């Protein structure tokens, strides 16, 4: 079913997609003429597939549960923010705070993301095929951030237990973030993530970064880092 | 919040529709700035005539005409709502002191190619009031304001122009503007409001005396403290700069005919052929410029 945002109001489109129940047979939708509108496909809860044809604004697919959302264009700030489950695939670039605070699901960005990608992420898997901007994975708590390209300044600043895998160069690491050894379990997890993103790059080409766990508790020796 | 927009035309194709395109941008940025709006539009007049953009405020046009006639020679006065464009071959150093003696009016900008119109009220009302749709030009900059640090007045509206054919719009806030204003005042700059952006505009004008726009903005990275995405206009084009933290948004679309910059993509969704444009976010701390 095609939903044309030139003819329909954003609110009615979102309401329609949010009110789908298990009995609904039609589970494939396209949205045309998004024209940079905000909050398209926010708060979806059912296992449906939505393809958005064009560039979208802020908080696209925010709070997503179960739905599979494809954006054939660029996305603004906070794509898939606070996602719980499901999958969001951006074919263009993403602006800042992609996948912010998200608890689960998978976010794939074919292009680049700007600053603060995966800020405070809490379990989501984010796979960026381009590069990520500065302060990515800031205070990231859980989940995985995979970057095929380069990472900007202060990667993983003050992070907790998120695993960051970067294939390219890292401009600088943030406080308490360090390069870590790739164990077997990391390699197999990364392989699984790369497969999800349809990539056959070898996990060996990535470096893993994680928390040095020195900022967890107050320590007078670290006072300059707090 | 605040919304900033700009269009730089690379070809003559869209010169006549520049006002119409900018008008749509400003209206769609109303959600980011409902308090006041303004725009600077450049038309490369190659003659020697200076254009002085003036908001009359509560002064009547008749009274202004009567009094100005006694003090200077001018070519024409064109009225557009509560603003006028006074044209004269007299140089700014002669005219500016005369205009300053009119305490009720506000000089919002001057130069050989720039015209500025700005007023309180919603962007949709402001663009209607000044008939922005009918303007043509080579490049233009606009702003929709959500007032934070100073009052909602004409003088508190953007764009700010503090030099010949110069203007600045700003999304963000500066934290060292009071100190900077004191320093600039000592060096001879004049300010008409308590606004932080006016200080940044004054800073740029002051610095342009010794360097070009790109060098000026680069220097500003270490001397302007705060959050910002700036668009700074000159007679030949404009430049864009985001601070290094880059919390304030900006998106640029470039085609063979134009460069468009907006706070949000939705403001440029109506631009011709935009879905095939090269669309990117300006990187933090890097000066992007078009024109000479």
List the helices and strands and how they pair.
The complex is a heterodimer of chains A (226) and B (292).
Chain A lengths: L1 E3 L5 H9 L9 E5 L16 E5 L14 E5 L14 E4 L15 E4 L12 E7 L13 E6 L15 E4 L10 E4 L3 H13 L10 E5 L15
Parallel strand pairs in A: 1-2, 2-3, 3-4, 4-5, 5-6, 6-7, 7-8, 8-9
Antiparallel strand pairs in A: 9-11, 10-11
Chain B lengths: L2 E7 L8 H11 L7 E7 L7 E6 L5 H11 L4 E5 L2 E6 L3 H9 L5 E6 L2 E7 L2 H7 L9 E7 L21 E8 L2 H10 L9 H13 L4 H11 L2 E9 L2 E6 L8 E4 L3 E5 L15 E3 L7 E3 L2
Antiparallel strand pairs in B: 1-8, 1-13, 2-7, 2-8, 3-5, 3-6, 4-5, 9-10, 10-11, 11-15, 12-13, 12-14
Helix pairs in contact in B: 5-6, 6-7
How would you characterize the overall build of this protein?
- The complex is a heterodimer of chains A (226) and B (292).
- With 226 residues, chain A is mainly beta.
- Chain A has a single domain (2-225), classed as Pectate Lyase C-like (3 Solenoid), CATH 2.160.20.60.
- Chain A is built from two helices and eleven strands; from the N terminus they run E-H-E-E-E-E-E-E-E-E-E-H-E.
- Chain A has helices at residues 10-18, 184-196; strands at 2-4, 28-32, 49-53, 68-72, 87-90, 106-109, 122-128, 142-147, 163-166, 177-180, 207-211.
- Chain A has an eleven-stranded mixed sheet, covered by helices on one side.
- Chain B has two domains: 3-41 and 130-290, Glutamine Phosphoribosylpyrophosphate, subunit 1, domain 1 (4-Layer Sandwich), CATH 3.60.20; 45-112, Alpha-Beta Plaits.
- In chain B, helix 5 (177-186) packs across helix 6 and helix 6 (196-208) packs across helix 7.
- Chain B is globular.
- The mean pLDDT of chain B is 95.
- Chain A binds chain B through residues 35-38, 54-58, 73-74, 76-77, 92-93, 95-96, 114-115, 133-134, and chain B through 246, 249, 251, 264-270, 275, 279-281, 283-284.
